[in-house]
Here is the input.
Amino acid sequence: RKEVEQDPGPFNVPEGATVAFNCTYSNSASQSFFWYRQDCRKEPKLLMSVYSSGNEDGRFTAQLNRASQYISLLIRDSKLSDSATYLCVVTSDSNYQLIWGAGTKLIIKP
Amino acid sequence: DTAVSQTPKYLVTQMGNDKSIKCEQNLGHDTMYWYKQDSKKFLKIMFSYNNKELIINETVPNRFSPKSPDKAHLNLHINSLELGDSAVYFCATGSGSGADTQYFGPGTRLTVL
Here is the structure.
């Protein structure tokens, strides 16, 4: 089983729609969780951290379910500029290293 | 002003050659990383340096040798390049805990022919 699993997509979504991505992780000792965004042929950039209580940043909402070892990202009112690959990231046992999912590709269509 | 820079951006070379990739950061971070992203898009950590000391050394062939001359620089030297080394190599920096944000360089796209 992969340490961090994501549906690779692509998700083809019309502009303005709501889209949700899921991610599962295998290490119950992981302490920190993130969503990064990677545009085509660019470097990953932090989108948001994920907190136990859930957190929101504008149109983006992240949720964490520690019992099920499951992280989600919800994007509301999607824009063309949201087209990218979204990478689910968790920390390792030592909380020192990041373990990366392979990413979910999102394509927003006009 | 670029926070994390890498050179070169593209590198095309023959099997068996030796090549280096350079990384520089101006964020004042203590920790620098090298990642490899292959064609399947998995991002895998290769090395991590904290204040010029090697702290993470994943299972990477010893043909890969990182060097950190100072806190702001982390270079990667690769000997005897193989076809399977073709990938995008990203340098990243952070404050030292994996729990903190990591900032990535633009990547070096290595193609071994």
